[in-house]
């Protein structure tokens, strides 16, 4: 796991966050402009290398809808995921394109659709949460396989806002949690080298107690990474 923390003021992420909207749900405030790139902290096992990351985010009003989860072969709303989300294509805004490029540079992975899913922007209001789950598919019927590019091998998640209280991302078996800090990001592998899901990645978005939480997910698939992140029969290699 690699965790990228934001700086204390100064610098710039490149694209800038753009303007601010109104309150709550539609047009909820987008994170403000500013900040730079600084690395610290860590997490998971074996002290992974920290990697530089920076980005901007457009002011575009995103078409937020109630978030869904994989439910059999389909996707459906569920009480265990209370948030709104939207998918942003890289072609929807130059900043998204730039962000994709940076995620690719930081991870070294091919994040181009369909090897990477479109960027998913998620908004949690007070009480919003996502109970413990895996990002990768755990059943062959999962809609995750609809892209025909294999399972979600890795997750890159960016915190687009801070919150006043609550909202941490908790890794249940790995036994640590990450606070919601604007412009921080986290990367982890969901699958072992042999393609099996890593149960240590079980994670949750804790309920937001005070504030308005925004994150962006980039899910990267197995295909497209064959010569970058090689598979082996030894899951730990
Ligand atoms: O909001 C969080 O902290 C976690 C979000 C998450 O795990 C997801 O969207 O899959
Ligand atoms: Fe997740």
What's the layout of helices and strands?
Blueprint: E1 2-4, E2 65-66, E3 69-71, E4 74-76, E5 81-82, E6 84-88, H1 94-107, E7 119-124, E8 129-133, E9 152-159, E10 165-166, E11 169-171, E12 176-178, E13 185-189, E14 203-205, E15 208-210, E16 213-221
Antiparallel strand pairs: 1-13, 2-6, 3-4, 5-8, 6-7, 7-16, 8-14, 9-13, 9-16, 10-15, 11-12, 11-14
Walkthrough of the structure:
This protein is mostly beta strands and 237 residues long. The chain has one domain: Jelly Rolls (Sandwich). Helices cover 6% and strands 27% of the residues. It has 1 helix and 16 strands. Strands 1-13-9-16-7-6-2 form a 7-stranded antiparallel sheet, with helices on one face. Strands 5-8-14-11-12 form a 5-stranded antiparallel sheet, with no helix packed on it. The protein has a two-stranded antiparallel ribbon with strand order 3-4. Strand 3 and strand 4 form a beta hairpin. The protein starts with a strand and ends in a 16-residue tail after the last strand. The site of fe (ii) ion has 3 residues, from loops. Pfam families: 2OG-FeII_Oxy_3. Its cofactor is L-ascorbate. InterPro entries: Oxoglu/Fe-dep_dioxygenase_dom, P4HA-like, Pro_4_hyd_alph, Pro_4_hyd_alph_FE2OG_OXY.
């Amino acid at each position: 796991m690699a965790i990228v923390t934001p700086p204390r003021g100064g610098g710039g992420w490149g694209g800038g966050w753009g303007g601010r909207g109104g309150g709550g749900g539609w047009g909820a405030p987008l994170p403000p402009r500013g900040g730079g790139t600084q690395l610290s902290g860590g997490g998971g096992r074996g002290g992974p290398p920290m990697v530089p990351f920076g980005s901007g985010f457009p002011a575009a009003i995103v078409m937020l809808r109630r978030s869904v989860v994989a439910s059999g072969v389909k996707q459906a709303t569920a009480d265990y995921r209370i948030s709104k989300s939207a998918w942003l294509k890289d072609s929807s805004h130059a900043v998204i394109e730039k962000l994709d490029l940076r995620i690719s540079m930081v991870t070294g992975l091919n994040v181009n659709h369909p090897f990477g899913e479109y960027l998913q922007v998620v908004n949690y209001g007070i009480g919003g949460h996502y109970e413990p789950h895996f990002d990768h598919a755990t059943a062959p019927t999962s809609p995750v396989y609809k892209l025909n590019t294999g399972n979600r091998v890795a997750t890159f998640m960016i915190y687009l806002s801070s919150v006043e209280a609550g909202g941490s991302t908790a890794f249940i078996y790995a036994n640590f949690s990450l606070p919601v800090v604007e412009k921080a990001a986290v990367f982890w592998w969901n699958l072992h080298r042999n393609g099996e899901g890593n149960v240590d990645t079980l994670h949750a978005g804790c309920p937001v107690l005070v504030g308005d939480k925004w994150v962006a997910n980039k899910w990267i698939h197995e295909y497209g990474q064959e010569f970058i992140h090689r598979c082996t029969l030894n899951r730990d290699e």
